[in-house]
Amino acid sequence: MTGSIEPPLLAALKNKMQWHSARQGVLAENVANASTPGFRAHDLAPPPAQESGLGVALTNRGHLTLASASASGRPEERGSFERTPDGNAVVLEEQMTKAAQNQMDHQMAATLYGKSLGLLRIAIGKR
Hints:
The protein is mostly helical. The protein has a domain at about 90-125. It is about 45% helix and about 0% strand. It contains two helices and no strands. The protein has helices at about 10-30, 90-125. The longest helix is centred in the C-terminal third of the chain and has 33 residues, at about 90-125.
């Protein structure tokens, strides 16, 4: 087979897993530099949902949105108020919470990817 055609859902899930892997590295770097003077925590911006074509659209301003989302439907980023005397702005509890949530989101995407592949195998008769 010279080339493969990947369904949009699988491509979106693969991109999501790659993003979560990269984000885990950034969060781990934040934790590793928790005692570095002047270090500020970083995070990756979420990939635009429009790239995959699988985003949630806000079609009416009266519709409910996520609790952490603004009126535009994008998550709001809040800065940390905690800072040590040496200028370090890494809050370990916050970074560990983000890392745990990121790991769960990656696991969910990986599970969906695996289940989708299983459904495709069943559909083509190669169980």
